[in-house]
Amino acid sequence: MKLAALGVVTVAIGVALSLPGLVGIGAWWVVVGFFARRHAAVFKALQPTAPGSRASTAKPAVDGRTFALGTLLWLALGIPSLAVGLGQVGIDPEHQDWRWLPVVVGGLALGIGVVGAVLYLAGSALLASGGQATPTHPATLWIRAMRETGTFVNERPRIELELRVEPEAATGIAGYDVTKRATVPFTALGSLRVGDGFRALVAGPDDPASMDIHWDEPVEGV
Length: 222
Fold this sequence. Notes:
The chain has helices at residues 3-17, 20-45, 54-58, 64-87, 100-129; strands spanning 137-153, 156-167, 176-183, 197-202, 211-219. By secondary structure, the chain is α+β, with helices and mostly antiparallel strands.
């Protein structure tokens, strides 16, 4: 059952039994469910690597900001739920069996959040051990040319991009050119134009193809 739907049911139970704890936490699940659904769409769009490729096994497909937001959503779901359930907040002793509903939801949320964090960090560690530099320098990628490769990953096109990489001045890194193949998420296809670009994190000219492209941060050319 989707989180928002579960929240509505929990609110209804809380109202029927006069349990403000269930009413409150159910309403909170509806709110978190709305943001979780939006985040899930972004998360799905940022899965750019092909199964079986080196990138798919070594490089996290999601940038750090998206991962951090997802973790915060799990915490926002899990911690209040456990607080209501374990503390029996707004749940009177006569109906204390209902406290297990927020306890179960909260425990699952925290568990998923922890497992996701471990997998993401393991992917980052594997990338580092593979000899590639971790992209940490903010930059703008300007598209100079692009070509279709005829390959699709999960029905999304693989595009070969000729890019001008311009790291921010504070990094002290000079601009450089690179040719990069990337699986472009559907949400970014409308912003993919020669002369425009995207924000990104890059490793630098010593490992020019190592980058995390922020497909949700397009930049228009002058």
